[in-house]
Amino acid sequence: MNTHKLAKQLKYSVLFALALSTLSGCAQLDEWSKPNVNGLRQDPSFDVNAIEKGGISNITITSSLNSNEITPSAIAPQLTAAIRDKRSDITVNTNGQYKINADVLTNDIRNSTNSSDQLYKVTTRSIKVNYTITDKKSNHAVWTGIIETSQDTSASYKLKKDDGKNEKTSDKILNALVDSMVEPADQPFPSPPNLSDVMQSNFEGFALNLPQAK
Known about the structure:
Blueprint: H1 3-33, E1 38-42, H2 48-54, E2 56-63, H3 72-86, E3 98-115, E4 118-135, E5 140-158, E6 166-170, E7 174-178, H4 195-209
Parallel strand pairs: 2-3
Antiparallel strand pairs: 1-5, 3-4, 4-5, 5-6, 6-7
Helix pairs in contact: 3-4
């Protein structure tokens, strides 16, 4: 075997090994970071073999909220995409045995303030979704539970600066200089996290909590 061909094979072997290592690391990170399921009820028959063999068909979003911000038909494809992304072993098509309904229970935004040497203002968005998986053959619910996810945006204000400027930073990598000092009460809370981002983490958390091989 010539040297060039051997080097090429070694290169691909190394790249393949790195790819496997990256995938393994991502899977482990998902496992560590997935949210808990509150009030989980799972039928013993609904295991990883059942969901992989049966597949998923209908996926619907409903909302218990009276809010123009939540548009069920618009976010349903986001749940489908999250399942396909996080659980490539599960088939999602019209022939699936199981149907999913996700009912958005809460979409809360709250503000909080902390201070030490700096003034910190935090805006938190929390989403709570009740999931129900039903076996279409028996019309029996085989998996139910509630998942809550939240994200923060924060701003910190230095209350005293010799140069007369007030620096504001946030965990969304926003940096800005304010031209004049203002009273702490006048310093604004940051905008809340995007609804789509918090929904995405909730949908992914649901997908990762579905039965899977150990």
